[in-house]
Design brief:
With 517 residues, the chain is α+β, with helices and mostly antiparallel strands. The chain is built from 22 helices and 11 strands. A hairpin with a 2-residue loop joins strand 5 and strand 6. Helix 10 packs antiparallel against helix 16 and helix 17 crosses helix 21. The structure holds protoporphyrin IX containing FE. Its cofactor is heme. Belongs to the cytochrome P450 family.
Length: 517
């Protein structure tokens, strides 16, 4: 398997098929007219009697996965689905077996814990494939079996507890200080800093330090670590893998066309897996009390047991992706909107600079008290949900209801975060950045549960307290110490971002200088 679920053997099969000609199945399809007519009649019958036929949506989506794959590969899937919700309403059929919802209640029904007579929806096959999946090992994010996942989550929760968080603060602060110093120095040299890239390096180092027990020196060497390159590349290929899952036969042809890309991914994946395993093994051979996630994952196990090396390595690889890109996207959105609004920028810097009498006094506990910053972060996660909408779930056998609609078993369902969080049904002037809607005193008409950046229920974000700690600390330190000015003001985050499984954002060019006041 590739890291993302494409069986390696498929690549070989495609190569063989291309040498020996069409497969027997393809030969069957070069059929006599009556067989062709029968095939078409069967297809039409299946379309007319499909259990999802009553759900609204574009006609083509009801008969083929092609529109969905086309949108996904074009990088604008979620924006298109958002438009479809505006046209068709709260539920849209986006593929033959797939429904998209855009309501707060659907978040609860699809992702939440449900009690009898309902049942909790498991993750779908679109989660198959991650680092080490070729060994049959799943991590906390890709485990689909609810019982297997529940056991993992109980164990991993310990690594994200309040106590663990307090102990992790020092490790985070070390890297944040390095980040502030590096961007400050670049600014002093007269360079414009691409915060999109440097925040990515910073979060990769922070999450690497916590999950792998060491940073990746991405800040020191400008993101040259092969694992960072691989992760960035792999996240951009998920639409391709999704397409291959939807079109298993066409997928083989695709594999031929994209053989180079896939082989590069395979090589990158093998290196990343090797690297993760070597770190885990090194750690096991040299036990330490360093208070990171890797240490915590080796605790709280039944006596005389330990997690297999590969299982540990799978968890840390998945945590690396879950924890780095999400926080980096959120902070990029904060900088983008705050720096465009001089009054907001001035109020925020004044608040932070008066809250802390010196840079050294900035810590997670105090940073969490800056309420204005909290509202700004919440609004940033609403206006650009850091995890876009492929959090696919499978309706269990027998079917169930989602926001009052009965959905047959076997249907794939999602709540589309962008469509929900940018809907005028739930937010007043949804395209406007208005942090005040999150303030406790706000009497706005907004329905805040329509923004669920961390998802909810049994698979909701396990690292959200850690994420808050990281983001509060970084943003307080940067706004306290540096003056910032957005350079590429013509950039539009919604217009210029693409998405695959996560966001592919445009550069965020910022002039940085030591604060003048
Ligand atoms: C702004 C920052 C973050 C956001 C918006 C975010 C969002 C999410 C979302 C939406 C999910 C659900 C994914 C799904 O259903 O497939 C998730 C899961 C998860 N996140 Fe986060 N996340 C953030 C930061 C972090 C951090 C910093 C970590 C750890 C270093 C982390 C660790 C996890 C883990 C382990 C899961 C899997 C939980 C499970 O399945 O039991 N996240 N996150």
């Amino acid at each position: 398997m590739t890291p993302l679920g494409v069986p390696v053997s498929d690549l070989a099969k495609v190569a063989v098929a291309s040498l020996v000609g069409t497969s027997s199945r393809e030969h069957l399809h070069r059929t006599h007219p009556p067989q062709t007519a029968f095939f078409i009649a069967r297809k039409i019958y299946a379309i007319l009697t499909h259990p999802l036929r009553k759900f609204p949506g574009p006609f083509l989506c009801g008969i083929s996965n092609a529109p969905y794959s086309y949108w996904f590969n074009g990088g604008r899937r979620d924006f298109i689905i958002k438009d479809l919700h505006e046209k068709y309403g709260p539920v849209v059929r986006i593929a033959p077996d797939e429904l998209s919802f855009a309501t707060p209640q659907s978040f609860r029904d699809i992702y939440g814990f449900r009690t009898a007579p309902h049942s909790t929806f498991p993750k779908s096959r679109f989660y198959d494939g991650s680092a080490f999946s070729s060994y049959g090992v799943h991590g906390i994010i890709t485990a689909r079996d609810p019982a297997e996942h529940a056991q993992m989550r109980r164990h991993l929760s310990h690594a994200f507890s309040e106590r663990a968080l307090r102990e992790q603060e020092g490790l985070v602060a070390e890297i944040v200080d390095e980040f502030v110093k590096i961007v400050g120095n670049m600014g002093a040299e007269g360079k414009v800093v691409d915060f999109e890239w440097w925040l990515r390096c910073c979060m990769f180092d922070v999450t690497g330090s916590l999950a792998f027990g060491r940073g990746f020196d991405a800040l020191k060497n400008g993101g040259q670590h092969p694992s960072l390159k691989f992760v960035v590349e792999a996240m951009k290929q998920l639409s391709l893998i999704d397409t291959m899952t939807r079109f298993p036969y066409l997928g083989k042809v695709f594999a031929l066309f994209f053989a180079r890309k896939l082989l590069k991914l395979l090589r990158g994946s093998a290196m990343h897996e090797e690297f993760a395993l070597s770190i885990v093994r090194e750690r096991i051979a040299n036990p330490t009390t360093r208070p990171d996630i890797l240490t915590r994952l080796q605790e709280n196990l039944p006596p005389n047991t330990r997690l297999p090396d590969i299982q540990l390595a799978t968890h840390v690889c998945e945590i690396l992706i879950a924890g780095s890109d999400t926080s980096n996207t959120t902070m990029g959105t904060v900088f983008n909107y705050v720096l465009r609004d001089p009054s907001l920028y001035s109020r925020l810097t004044t608040t932070i600079r008066s809250h802390f009498s010196s840079y050294d006094k900035i810590n997670a506990l105090e940073a969490a008290k800056v309420e204005m910053l909290r509202s700004i972060i919440q609004e940033s996660m609403r206006i650009l949900p850091p995890v876009p909408g492929a959090l696919n779930r499978l309706v269990p056998e027998g079917g169930d209801t989602v926001d009052g609609f009965f959905v047959p078993g076997g249907t794939y369902v999602t709540t589309q975060p962008l469509a929900t969080a940018l809907s005028p049904l739930y937010f007043d002037e949804p395209m406007k950045f208005k942090p005040e809607r999150w303030e406790r005193s706000s009497k706005g008409k907004d329905i805040l549960e329509a923004s669920q950046p961390f998802s909810l229920g049994p698979r909701g974000c396990l690292g959200q307290n850690l994420a808050w700690m990281e983001m509060n600390t970084i943003l307080c330190k940067v706004f306290w110490k540096l003056d910032l000015e957005l350079v590429n003001t013509d950039m539009d985050l919604h217009r210029d971002s693409k998405l695959d499984s996560l966001w592919d954002k445009p550069p965020l060019l910022i002039k940085v200088s030591e604060r003048r006041d």
